[in-house]
Amino acid sequence: MSVHYQNFQEIEAVVAGFEACTTPKDGFTHLSHLTVATFYLHTSTPELAFEKMRFGLFRFLDHHAVDRSKYNERVTRAWLQQIQNVIEQSDSASSLVSLTNIVLERLGTFRLTSNKDYE
Asked: Is the residue at 22 inside a domain?
């Protein structure tokens, strides 16, 4: 397994950059999305994680003058479900750093490809 993060501070920096919109729009990669979503799921309920992600994505898009049509609620929910599935299959005693690295390893190159992935 490749290690993307060594410590909590590295994950916290990605989340903080997203929330403060200091991350450039091109710098918020697929792996960054997965990192933030894993953080939210690890630190709150799935529904609250969805709300935080949704609100954060709208704020990020608005800040970077990107049309909100780029946001897709079904896709956001589907990704959060995929991440939640990975978390549930992992050791419940795993740290956020371990969980995030596992999520990135398993889902980093995965793409939602059909409507069945969104349901």
From this structure: yes
